[in-house]
Amino acid sequence: MGHVHRKRRRSKPQLREAGRLSRMTSAYLAAEGFDGQLLEELRRRAIAPLATRGRLLICDGPAVPSAWAAYIWYDCLELPVASIGTAAKVLRDIQRNWAMYAPLHHRRAALIQERLPHVSAKPIVFPAVAPTAPLGSWTLLAPDRLLAAAHCSAPFPNGEVAFIEDREGPPNRAYLKLWEALVRLGRWPQAGERCLDLGASPGGWTYVLAKLGAVVVAID
Hints:
Structural class: alpha+beta
Number of domains: 2
Strand order of the largest sheet: 1-6-9-8-7
Strand content: 15-25%
Number of strands: 12
Helix content: 25-40%
Oligomer: single chain
Largest sheet: 5 strands, mixed
């Protein structure tokens, strides 16, 4: 009798090739200098990090809103990557746009990022609408393992919004905070609208509102 050759059935070959290992469901990137506050906030919600990489706290369970996280990664995947080329291909197979977070293995991570499509990080001229294209985030857990999240909490690399600053008009740098809040909200006061600025001194936020054409009542 002849030998019967049975073909193995393959499902989702790209994911098999990528070597999906597990889900570390969520990760929280602390705002610069606020690692301790983020850790305490998660502790109060009974969330204990499985691992940390720089300011990134990797946790089990679904992501929760966080006041101290600058950026949240949803539904993370941990993937084995044997080479720089493999890592870049794995990420490209998931989606186009990726932002790198590399507190460790920086040189290797930079070589991987170079093989990914360029993501513009040009400073924003306010007022401007936030980017709409999906932007994922990734980091190297080890030279041969990466953590990636295709969906994150903001369309800005590592949650950081950069602006072309106004260095002449505003009385202080607080105006940047309001710029960022309005861009994230996707709305800002229109000409003729009335705004109330409580605790207005030294006037950074009042300056922003007046520059937009709003009628501002500033009280301090």
